Amino acid sequence: MSAALKTTALDATAQAFLTRYAGLRARLPGSHDARDAAATRLRASGLPGPREEAWRFTHLRPITEFTFLEPLTPIEDCPRLLARLPEIDAPRLVFVDGRYRPDLSTPPEGIAVRVGGPAGEAVLAGEKLVDLNTMLGEDGAEIVVADGVDAGTLVLASLATDRDARHGAFHPRHAVSLGKGAKLTLIDVALGEGVYLNNSVLAIRVAEHAHLTHLRMQLESIRAFSFATLFADIAEGGEYDSFTLTIGARLSRNEVHANLSGPNAIAHLNAARMLRGQQHGDFTSIIRHIAPNCQSNQTVKTVLDNAARGVFQGKIEVARGAQKTDGYQMNQALLLSHDAEMNSKPQLEIYADDVKCSHGATVGEIDAEQLFYLRSRGVAHEEARAMLIRAFLAEAINGISHEAGRAAMETCLDAWWGADAA
Amino acid sequence: MLEIKGLTAAIGDKQILNGVDLVVPPGEIHAIMGPNGAGKSTLSYILSGRPGYEVTGGEASFNGHDLLEMEPEERAALGVFLAFQYPVELPGVGNANFLRTALNAQRRARGEAELDAPSFLKLARAEMKRLSMPDDMLKRNVNVGFSGGEKKRNEVLQMAILKPKLAILDETDSGLDIDALRIVSEGVNAQRGPNFSALVITHYQRLLDYIVPDRVHVLSAGRIIRSGGPELAHELEAHGYAGIVADAA
Ligand SMILES: Nc1ncnc2c1ncn2[C@@H]1O[C@H](COP(=O)(O)OP(=O)(O)OP(=O)(O)O)[C@@H](O)[C@H]1O
Ligand SMILES: [Mg+2]
Fold this sequence. Notes:
The complex is a heterodimer.
Chain A: H1 2-5, H2 9-24, H3 33-45, E1 68-69, H4 79-84, E2 92-96, E3 99-100, E4 112-114, H5 128-136, E5 142-145, E6 150-160, E7 167-170, E8 173-178, E9 183-192, E10 197-206, E11 211-219, E12 225-234, E13 239-246, E14 251-260, E15 266-275, E16 280-289, E17 295-304, E18 309-318, E19 326-335, E20 341-350, E21 356-364, H6 368-376, H7 381-397, H8 403-418
Parallel strand pairs in A: 1-7, 2-6, 5-8, 6-9, 7-10, 8-10, 9-11, 10-12, 11-13, 12-14, 13-15, 14-16, 15-17, 16-18, 17-19, 18-20, 19-21
Antiparallel strand pairs in A: 2-3, 4-5
Helix pairs in contact in A: 3-5, 6-7
Chain B: E1 2-11, E2 14-24, E3 29-33, H1 40-48, E4 54-62, E5 65-66, H2 72-78, E6 80-83, E7 90-94, H3 95-109, H4 117-130, E8 141-142, H5 148-162, E9 166-170, H6 178-191, E10 197-201, H7 205-210, E11 215-220, E12 223-228, H8 231-239, H9 242-248
Parallel strand pairs in B: 3-10, 3-11, 6-9, 9-10
Antiparallel strand pairs in B: 1-2, 1-4, 4-5, 7-8, 11-12
The site of magnesium ion has 4 residues of chain B, from helix 1.
């Protein structure tokens, strides 16, 4: 068909990335086999397009408005961005424009960290954004916590600088691996200024009885594009407890693949999102119950103002052998404007017969009775509204047990009320 | 002084208030009684500024301020307080935070200094003790999971903390057990003074044994059809509304 042969803007963008790869190939670190294979796949299939079911609600078209180049070698400091990092007393690994900055970092003790190239083994090959990351990825951190070690808290920060007309694209590839019985709280913050594309991949392994608390704060520039693909494998008795706050980016997709591969493994994939202006935020998760007796929990709260658009796609797969699975998913949106829109697609695929899976979704507005109750007590209209929005998010935020992390999230929420709509 | 003159109001095209005339001088407590559906709650909502009503005529002012022109929060800052017949649940909003935010919002609006957290807690705990409310009610979400009586008590707690000049108590007694009725009434009586007036809406004469009103009014079909002293409540208790409503017709 001629329509299929026609070069679309998205094809042109894919082609531009392939051309960058051809030029940069010799300078990119590590083996080129995986990169070449990813390039071959991308050349054949292009970037994710609206005809793909998984991308039905999220169109990458806006990225075609820009030409993205690899970032320049960072020269200047970025005090403004550093000042925006949450105040958490913990070692930190700082990446600027996708590259590790030892001068800004305070590496942890008791955790093995390796930087200087894409980290971790190949995961999710064939996922187009992962392939793009594999092809062009330059740097990343490999974080390894040995068996039995309680490694405390570690901050992983991604800062993106504004270089006026030069729009950077970077593709960090991180890996976090917790040995048997190990423990870590990873606070993962992304922020920046200007127009850029941050296409990260993070591979997580939680070994038997290990526990990873993962607090993610996506505070990217309101003009930026943010794609984060996460793969987590949780072994027997292990727990992956994540909370993602999404506030930034013009267009973002947070895609999580979590495999509960050993019995009694637990995954929490909670999220709170606040979007406004023309922002588009997509949270897509695929939770696979592979082993029996596992538990997954997901509460996603989305606040949408102005003409913002939220997407939630939550799939829970329960394999034939995954008896006694306990899966819970709740997706709630609060629309503050008639132009805001929420698209939800829950999906349960259950092949075992003895499971407990529930999911629910609600979309609502601010409750007029509650608003009047507060106002009748003297709370001004705007403040009353803010209180009710906070109350809507409270259930999700209050679930964060890491105190400094929760406080940092709350600071971000407070800043959101103060900031002007984009 | 609360002054209501010829107030008429509708919801959609349903006329509910048909010319309410009522004056409550400062320092006085007036009771409003009347059959179900007479418009008692509607009147109290309109006085506190709930959206959704169309005032089709008349006026309502408090201490010379035209209430009907004001936002609900402005009326609250002026000293108007409504204890809701059906208190609203606020999941995710802690009671202490709610009370302090409300108190400080009113203080700000009046140009007064805000209360810091320790001073507020001291005030709140003292008032809760007077109302025999356990301290943990401060930590819970506003009215969520509260029993009917606990909700009513929480309304009176708000009144005690916000110290309004005009309190409208819409069936605050219904749902209260015998002891709670006495405790809550004491809470209202404690507010009594030259700068406090109240409209007490109730179906039961018993409440008025505790909170002795200066005047009793009967509201029926959107109008005050009879006013009298506290003895009017006893008469209603004995004979019901039928006779009075027939006389007025
Ligand atoms: N939103 C509404 N839409 C239509 N009619 C309404 C609405 N709210 C109230 N009404 C009607 O207005 C009338 C007065 O109601 P209101 O609640 O003021 O009565 P009330 O005197 O407080 O009664 P009760 O003693 O049962 O509390 C009733 O007939 C009621 O059905
Ligand atoms: Mg009523």
